Amino acid sequence: MARADADERRFDTPKGTRRAPSFRGSGDSDRFGRFTEWVARGMGTPGFLLGLSVFAIGWMVWNTFAPVEWRFDSIAIGFTALTLVLSLQASYAAPLILLAQNRQDDRDRVQIEQDRQRAERNLADTEYLAREVVALRLAMRDLASKEFIRAELRAIIEELDRRDDERDEEDAEHASR
Fold first, then answer.
1. What is the mean pLDDT of each run of 10 residues along the chain (177 residues)?
2. What spatial distance separates the first Cα and last Cα of the chain, rounded to whole Å?
3. At what angle are helices 80-142 and 46-65 packed, to 10 degrees?
4. Cβ–Cβ < 8 Å for 103, 37
5. Domain boundaries, the chain
6. Consecutive H or E run containing 25
């Protein structure tokens, strides 16, 4: 009932309609996905394999050496119940592992896309910086060097000294007349 009230308050849902329950994108789906990953990680451990082996050996030992009235699986028919239990475990393990792999593939796809975008940004940044370095080198080539400025200043000083000398000579000539 609360879900129907929530749908009625939403502006993107027409009044009087109920959305079908969806496991895609809901918290339940994520919880189930995390559960499948937990199961898949657990089944791949040596501890799980050792525990399963101990379980199967214990089952066979019990049903072989326990008193007949306590046995629940017969060695005469090849431990059929144990075979069924292990088949049931395997029939659930395979889809859970596949679901966990699909989730990992989705995460890998997202990570690859993020890495690709990051690489594109890095390439763009690197190209921008390379262009800026080239522009700075060109600008530096157009700038005057210290030696050039010193030579120009010496030439100006010599020109000013020459003019002063000429003025002094002119003043001396005017004074002598």
1. 55 53 60 88 90 96 93 90 94 90 92 96 96 90 84 94 90 80
2. 123
3. 180
4. yes
5. 28-143, 145-177
6. none
